[in-house]
Design a protein that fits this description.
The structure holds two protein chains of two kinds.
Chain A: E1 7-13, H1 17-29, E2 33-38, H2 44-54, E3 59-64, E4 67-72, E5 82-86, E6 92-93, H3 116-132
Parallel strand pairs in A: 1-2, 1-3
Antiparallel strand pairs in A: 3-4, 4-5, 5-6
Chain B: E1 2-9, E2 13-22, E3 26-36, H1 46-60, E4 68-75, E5 79-87, E6 89-94, E7 98-101, E8 110-118, E9 130-135, H2 141-152, E10 156-162, H3 167-172, E11 180-181, E12 195-200, H4 213-220, H5 224-229, H6 231-236, E13 242-247, E14 252-257, E15 262-267, E16 271-274, H7 279-288, E17 292-297, H8 302-318, E18 326-340, E19 349-362, H9 368-379, E20 382-388, H10 389-397, E21 407-412, E22 416-422, E23 428-434, H11 437-447, H12 453-461, E24 464-467, E25 472-475, E26 480-482, E27 495-499, E28 502-505, H13 512-538, E29 549-553, H14 562-570, E30 576-579, H15 591-603
Parallel strand pairs in B: 1-4, 4-20, 8-9, 9-10, 10-11, 21-29, 29-30
Antiparallel strand pairs in B: 1-2, 2-3, 5-19, 6-14, 7-13, 8-12, 12-13, 15-16, 15-17, 18-19, 21-22, 22-23, 24-25, 24-27, 25-26, 27-28
Helix pairs in contact in B: 10-15, 11-12, 11-13, 13-14
The chains are: A alpha/beta, B alpha+beta.
């Protein structure tokens, strides 16, 4: 029997507040639950991996400072499904590391005329929820 | 002892087969190869591809190209095919009066009717008037929610339309719940003050009021004439999760029936048939017309343009003046094409009736002599043009284990479907029919609205699966496959094609069942129709019962489901029908090349 609420876990350490807010909005729009916890883990990869493994539906997000990573249970630590970085000027940078599956992922711009970089955080949140709903990523 | 090579130049592939001939032991097959045809069939540009294929074949047995003593070229059938598609109906919205789309996350449920009110005009609104508020994308969900909450204290707000994808976010922050539709990209085309009806379906359902003409009439107080004119709107909203209909005074939605035009069959029993009557009527006219000299369409109509496009394409391909191009056969198929509605607000499409046509054009004899002379000069060996393609294909098909005379072959290629029957006496009757693999690709492309022919070709060729988790996918037949190594998350939740080089992702979000249905239907419409048509033409006394063996050869015979479809169809005539297996090892390919080598033995004393 399922006793835990099927929520996406967001493990954070000193998170960029704008980033966290947009990611949560992305999950909320898709209608999935989430829980935020301050966790003392050394790296972004560890935060995301641990979140995914602790989450009942197996979808987790790690946020370390101005970086965020989407991880799914079953993927190896460090093989994040998506990685984002927000700079002080609020530019989001999609890192293209070789182990990052999503380096080639195309982010759709939303119709929103607001900060297009934070919109990518919204999409990261949506995708973590879409993973739970077994829907194709945005 | 000498090496003989058979070379078959097709529209898309060049196939070769090499055999060894000795006076007392006859032909002994050594190897075969194939590669893409270079240039247009029958032109000297083919030589490059021929040399490549021969090299490949000779390398596989550790010999040199120069060991070949004789090359036998096929006398290619002088027919080329082309396809065209034309929609017969079109839907036009004047003055933007509807939105019916499927945002994945609308919020709330139910219907609402009210005057359209833009966010910035909230302060000017009157009390006791029902409103539907339009929120532009520049306004964040928090601003929108607080503004709506404040306004709800004094105004009657029934629903909201958002430009951004934030319906759930806004609704979660509202004190009084209302239906909200989001992702309406062209919000600025809406007009302040017009009467609007919105509907969000209950979870798991689709809209009910707005997909019903009387529902729209109820909500927007329409008279019988207006109700009649909103029928196309209601039709296009069927199956949607959310919808908006606006009542604009001058607004209108029309379903135009385009003047499709007539097709003239210049034949033994020449007739005239209108494209509007549909594929079935056209095909009846074609089969009743006897020998066809040429087919044309009425000038300045859709069908006329379609035929002139085909003529133009064929004339530049075969380098013959347009006046000399004769269309001698067509295959017409009914289809539905999702077409972008002109005047729509959120990129809505409407399924329009369309007809796809494959035409076959008889060209003058291909300049094979020229090609063979050039080939002889370049490779320094004897080159001979030997026999007619269909005869050679029949000879090759006879090497399939379990076949006997009389034998029928069905050669399903890219541009045309050919059939031939060899009688006990070795007499060959043959026919060429328009419509084959390329028409199937075109139908798949149109019906799925892909606008990408390459993707359509891939869908035709490979089975589908849906990636359901990082470690398993569900095949189109329901079977589950599990993998050790996690699947790339890019494929997650997507419909993919299973190719020999890994997965290909479907970019468009179309349910797997729909793709399977469209693909199978396209293959059935083209190949089953054409197989029956072709075999009836060549069968003795045009009676299919007189055929006992049918061997399927050619590129489309390699398909993973077409041969099974035909087998099922032909079971009714109690004939043995199946995919050929040339020389017991080549599968349905290489029939003509094999036939060319075999026929050499027949010519020897």
């Amino acid at each position: 029997m399922i006793t835990k609420k099927p929520a996406i876990f967001i493990y954070v350490r000193n998170p960029d507040e704008r980033m966290l807010k947009e990611i949560c909005a992305g999950i909320e729009e898709e209608g999935v639950f989430y829980e935020i916890r301050e966790v003392d883990l050394p790296s972004l990869d560890e935060l995301a991996w641990q979140a995914a493994n602790d989450s009942m539906p197996g979808s987790g997000i790690g946020i370390l400072g101005n970086q965020a990573a989407l991880q799914l249970r079953g993927l190896d630590k460090g093989r994040n499904a998506a990685v984002l970085e927000v700079f002080a000027t609020s530019k989001v940078h999609v890192t293209a590391s070789p182990q990052n599956h999503f380096s080639s992922m195309r982010f759709h711009e939303t119709a929103s005329l607001r900060d297009p970089d934070l919109a990518k955080c919204r999409i990261l949140g949506s995708n973590s929820a879409r993973a739970v709903k077994k829907m194709a990523f945005k | 002892m000498s090496f003989i090579a058979g070379v078959d130049i097709g529209n898309s592939t060049t196939e070769v087969c090499v055999g060894e001939w000795a006076p007392n032991s006859g032909i002994h097959f050594l190897c075969s190869a194939s590669c893409a045809t270079t240039g247009t069939k029958g032109t000297p540009a083919n030589i490059h591809g021929i040399r490549e294929a021969l090299n490949q074949a000779m390398e596989s047995i550790g010999r040199e190209l120069s060991d070949i003593a004789l090359i036998r070229l096929n006398e290619a059938a002088p027919v080329i095919g082309d396809t065209a598609m034309e929609t017969l109906t079109e839907t036009i919205i004047t003055d933007s009066s509807m939105i019916g789309h499927n945002p994945s996350t609308p919020a709330g449920a139910g219907q609402a009717v009210g005057k359209l009110l833009f966010m910035e005009n909230l302060s000017r609104a009157a009390a006791h008037t029902p409103y539907i508020v339009a929120v532009p994308g520049t306004c964040s969900y928090e601003e929108a929610a607080s503004a709506l909450n404040r306004a709800a204290e004094s105004l009657d707000i029934r629903g909201a339309i958002l430009q951004a994808d934030e319906a759930v976010l806004v609704e979660n922050r509202l004190h009084r719940k209302i239906p909200i539709i989001d992702e309406v990209a062209l919000l600025d085309r809406l007009k302040d003050g017009v009467e609007a009806a919105i509907e969000v379906a209950l979870p798991g359902q689709s809209v009910r009021m707005l997909s019903n003409p009387y529902g729209i009439a109820t909500l927007l107080h329409l008279n019988p004439e207006e109700t009649h004119s909103v029928t196309p709107i209601a039709k296009s909203l069927i199956g949607k999760r959310s919808a908006v209909v606006l009542k604009t005074p001058g607004g209108n939605v029309r379903e135009n029936v385009l003047p499709a035009g007539d097709i003239f069959l210049d034949a033994e029993n020449g007739t005239l048939v209108s494209l509007d009557e549909g594929a079935e009527k056209i095909m009846q006219a074609v089969s009743g017309a006897g020998d066809i000299h040429d087919i044309t369409g009425a000038p300045d109509t859709n069908v006329g343009n379609m035929f002139s496009r085909i003529r133009q394409g064929m004339s530049s391909l075969s380098q013959t003046p347009q006046a000399d191009i004769r269309i001698t056969d067509i295959l017409a198929v009914d289809t539905l094409a999702p077409v972008l509605i002109s005047g729509a607000l959120a990129g809505e499409t409407c399924l329009e009736k369309a007809v796809g046509i494959a035409a076959m054009v008889k060209t003058q004899k291909l300049p094979m002599e020229n090609l063979s002379k050039k080939l002889q000069k370049e490779l320094g060996m004897e080159v001979k043009i030997a026999g007619v393609e269909a005869v050679m294909a029949s000879l090759g098909a006879l090497t399939t284990p379990g076949t006997k005379l009389p034998l029928a072959i069905l050669d399903m290629g890219g541009g045309s479907t050919d059939a031939a029957v060899i009688s006990m006496e070795g007499k060959v009757v043959m026919t060429h029919q328009a419509g084959a693999g390329e028409l199937v690709s075109m139908l798949i492309e149109t019906e799925l609205g892909l606008s990408d022919r390459h993707m359509a070709e891939q869908i035709k060729k490979y089975p589908l699966a849906k990636v359901e988790s990082l470690f398993h996918m569900r095949m189109e037949n329901g079977q589950m496959t599990f993998v050790e190594e996690s699947i790339d998350p890019r494929f997650y939740g997507r419909v993919v094609l299973l190719t020999e080089n890994g997965l290909i992702r479907m970019e468009k979000d179309i349910p797997m069942e729909k793709i399977v249905q469209v693909r199978r239907e396209a293959k059935r419409k083209v190949f089953v129709t054409n197989a029956l048509r072709a075999l009836k033409k060549v069968a003795p006394k045009h009676n299919l019962k007189s055929l006992s063996n049918v061997v399927l050869v050619g590129g489309s015979a390699e398909d993973f489901e077409i041969p099974e479809m035909l087998m099922e169809e032909f079971a009714a005539w109690r004939m043995v029908c199946g995919r050929g297996n040339i020389r017991g090892q080549e599968g349905p390919r290489n029939a003509v090349a094999t036939g060319l080598v075999l026929s050499y033995a027949g010519e020897m004393p």
